[in-house]
Amino acid sequence: MRRFLLFSIALMAFISVSAQDAYNEAIRMARAVADDTSRTLEERKVATFKKDALYYLGYQSYKLAPDSSAAMLDHQALALFQYINLYTGRLAMAGKKERAEIIELFKNISLAHPKFKDKNKEYVLAYITNEGYITKFSLDTDWVAAYNDIKRRMTQR
Question: pTM (2 decimals)?
Answer without folding.
Answer: 0.85
